[in-house]
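User: My collaborator sent over this chain with a note saying "see what the structure looks like." That's all I know about it. Can you take a look?
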Amino acid sequence: MQEGIEETKGNDAAPKEQLAPGGIGVAVAIDWGLAVQIFLTPIITVLNPASQPKIAALNSTLTVVLYFIIAWLLAGLCLFFGEMLRSGHNWARWIQIAVTALLTLGGLASLPGLYQSLITGHFWPLVTEVILVIFAPLVLWRLSRPATGRWFKTVSAAEARQRHGGKWVWFIALFAIVGGILQTLAVMNK
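Assistant: Without extra context I'll predict from the sequence alone. Here is the result:
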């Protein structure tokens, strides 16, 4: 029996298994889903001219081009941030914790508005609230766990990408695309 304990202590894989992180998948799906939403928004505004932003002193074509450039740069930033979190960068974890805390508070503050929307038969705001009141607090809680913090402090980027690679990436990307499309529709149907 004592021998089995010694073997476990001497095995390099055992400590890393104990340091399994939590919340990374949902956090990356939220970040990438936001990228999908930001990417789709200018496309939808072109298809629906009534929702186009108006910027003083710019003609309509220039406004649309500028809108696409800014939106797609922001979408790229969200993709980059999700990738940094997936790659095990501890600074990205702390930013994600702060942002999801703010998102959770925003979701809680908008619950009365959700109630009003639901009683009038408008269900699209439910998509946003599920993200803000269920998934954001889950990310906040899981990323703030001590085991997750230790994992981020000890893992290399290559090890993190290996752990969160392969089918995992495709699964998270699928959730991000579906969530991003639903959130885009929810915002456009306010």
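A starting point for your reply to your collaborator: Residues 22-188 form one domain.
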